[in-house]
Amino acid sequence: MSKAASTQKVTGRKPASWTQDPEGVRRNILTVAKEEFVENGLSGARVDEIAARTATSKRMIYYYFGDKEGLYRAVLEEMYERIRGFERSLDLASLPPVEAMTLLAGFTFDYHAENPDFVRLVMVENIHHGRHLASSDRIASLNLSAIDMIREAYERGVAAGLFRPGIEALDIHLTISALAFYNVSNRASIRQVFGHDMGAPEALARRRAAAIDTLLRMLHP
């Protein structure tokens, strides 16, 4: 039984068509597409499979997104919008500089640990040399705003004598991201090489504390 038929049987209603809820259909396509791209990468993903798992058609997917690469780019944009939205909600500008950096480092570590699909898609995009990121003005704008947020907190810390001067905001971002990203991207290889599960609760807590400590030592005057 198809997913759409199953939904109808349980609820007694037909799934909403694209004319009834176009935004809902679009969100459904993006959700299923993300799962397909995470599992199979851009090259291995199949639009036919995505269409079969949604309440729409291959033709409608192309109507919304143009082609498979357009759909993949839209998934990337949604994922970057999500993490940057959560970062904005931290309201770092309202916090003292050290507290702001501590919160950001801890949040970034937790977000990556709880959203391994984000890490997998970034890895997929690196295989394709970042060309879809490069073609998205939306993602470029989102990521620049993240650097501006770090720069503001860092400069306040320098002015207060809490952080040493001369560090680029981008380098701070790269350090935070690297410490969070590696803990997810390399779990399988570290488990095989060292027999260590980086996803275990006690290991996560230890690495999280180390990530925050590393950043603060980097910034310390």
Automatic annotation (TrEMBL):
Under the heading Pfam families, the entry gives: TetR_C_29 (PF17938), TetR_N (PF00440)
Which residues belong to any copy of the HTH tetR-type domain?
Answer: 23-83
Which InterPro entries does the record match to this protein?
Homeodomain-like_sf, HTH-type_TetR-like_transc_reg, HTH_TetR, NicS_C, Tet_transcr_reg_TetR-rel_C_sf
Q: Which residues bind DNA?
A: 46-65
Q: Does the keyword DNA-binding apply?
A: yes
Magnesium: is it a keyword of this entry? Answer: no
Region Disordered: start and end of each range?
1-21
Top-rank taxon, per record:
Bacteria
Annotated Gene Ontology MF terms? DNA binding
Task: Provide this UniProt record's keywords sorted from A to Z.
Answer: DNA-binding
Composition skew (Polar residues), residue ranges: 1-10
Identification of the protein by name: DNA-binding transcriptional regulator, AcrR family
The lineage, from the top, is: Bacteria, Pseudomonadati, Pseudomonadota, Alphaproteobacteria, Hyphomicrobiales
